[in-house]
Write a structure and sequence with these properties.
Structural class: alpha+beta
Largest sheet: 8 strands, antiparallel
Shape: elongated
Oligomer: single chain
Strand content: 35-45%
Radius of gyration: 21 Å
Order of helices and strands: HEEEEHEEHHEEEHEEHE
Distance between the termini: 22 Å
Helix content: 10-25%
Number of helices: 6
């Protein structure tokens, strides 16, 4: 799937997310916030101007969010921007339940935030024997490299494969290759490698 597929899933299929900011006491604070719209530029949500959440968003301009449904999850961390009432009418049109929460002209209490530069991952354990993970990027960020990678000192002993929960290591080649889209990042392969040639990145 593409980045846009994941954004569509986040907004249209999962919808309700947990967003983390930093509270006034300096500790993380979470709230359940609905993702209202998505497009090729990112995802959009809103909140009322009178809330502490609004103040934190304006000051920090950064969030982390996680959302899960049916054992599939999307997690993102990145920069937000307040775009005021832009897209507010579109949000109410596509999310009609909002009209009952903020009827008539009371929607003027709300402002829209745009998650425009972020990175994260999609993780699917709906088939426990065949998990799937993928990177997600919004904006101009480069996809970060993370996971376990096998170096040139690999001797092809296959011990890593023997302890891998997902059996996602191709042992038909040397050095062996870990399928990053199925790896759990458990680290068992690195622990057992006799040459210590499997390294964690990211």
């Amino acid at each position: 799937m593409t980045n846009l597929d994941y954004l569509k899933m986040l907004v249209e299929d999962i919808h309700s997310t947990t967003i983390a900011t930093i509270g006034a006491d300096g500790h993380p604070q979470t709230r359940t916030i609905d993702m209202m719209l998505w497009d090729e530029k990112g995802v959009y949500f809103l909140t009322a101007k009178g809330k502490a959440f609004y103040t934190q968003l304006m000051e920090q301009k950064y969030i982390a969010l996680s959302a899960t449904k049916d054992k599939k999850s999307v997690s993102l961390r990145g920069k937000i921007q307040n775009i005021g009432s832009e897209k507010l009418d579109e949000i109410f049109e596509k999310n009609p339940y909002m009209q009952k929460i903020y009827p008539d002209n009371t929607r003027t209490a709300l402002e829209v935030f745009w998650l425009h530069e972020a990175s994260g991952e999609y993780f699917d354990i709906s088939d426990p024997a065949h998990v799937t993970r993928d990177s997600i990027v919004i904006g101009q960020l480069e996809t970060g490299v993370s996971g376990y990678f096998v170096g040139d000192k690999c001797i092809g002993c296959k011990l890593c494969y023997s302890v891998c929960p997902q059996k996602c290591i191709d042992i038909s080649v040397k050095p062996v290759v870990i399928d990053q889209k199925r790896c759990l990042h458990c680290g068992r392969c690195a622990e057992i490698c006799p040459k210590q040639t499997i390294e964690k990145r990211g």
